[in-house]
Amino acid sequence: MELRQLRYFVGVAETGCISETSRQMFISQSAISQQLKLLEEELGTQLFVRQHNTLTLTECGEELLPFAKQVLRGVTECHERIRCLQGLLCGELNVGLTYSLEPFMREATLCFMREYPKVQLNAHYKNHHELLRQLRNKEIDIILSMMPSSPHEFVESIPLTRYRLAAIMRKSHVLAKRSSITFQDLLPHKLILPEKGLRDRNAIESFIHKETGELNVRALVNDVNALMNIIQETNYITILNETSISNRPSLCSVLIEELKEPIQIYAHYNNLVSLKNSARRFIDILHNTALKHDMTFS
Description:
The chain is α/β, with parallel strands linked by helices and 298 residues long. 44% of the residues lie in helices and 23% in strands. Helix 1 (3-15) crosses helix 3, helix 1 (3-15) packs across helix 4 (59-86) and helix 5 packs across helix 10 (277-292).
């Protein structure tokens, strides 16, 4: 059974006349008659009977008509949906990221939503291990994070941007006027840090114990926004992505000497799945956001 046979069948059923269907579809009458004959032979039944000068549906033809129309509607909707997705006029994009990248994600998200208002963008904030599980299971389209600590065959990675970890504090803090500090400078001060297991915390863990002894860590928090709210209201210090202070004018970031080396961020996707057009465009926007804020340290 071919789509053209169903189109001709529906056309003749609606006009009651092969010649009129031929005129409307710009197809020869003989071609329509031949395809209808092939359709009847495949189904093993007659679909039309001639009454006077009009073709009328048989009982089997009446039964077939709604199904044929449904198939043709589905084909049309399929074509429209594909054109829509190609033009980024519809669809859904699921982006996973670690908590500390929220400030970087925020601006790119707003830009994407302005440019493609009919594409639903879903942001999933989780730890890196959980994001990799979701990527493997095809529950999300891309991950924004550091390189996985161990290789995964299904992960393809695109270098995206870099950021540095810094001491985040209120502008009124005694260390706020410094251009840079060391971990030794932090020893007398109270800190609230990201919870163990988060990637930013992993990056500073060796410095906390091996080189400086025990820092005065008073609390661990697994939500960056909650952590920043505490810093904003107290005289505590935290260590986070230096862009975390965006949209928080009362805070500042001070570079930590031992953490001068930027951390590379990648867009990871599942190489067993075709990357969506919306994901490609979102990665482009992330690149532009990084360039705009000079986050590449080139």
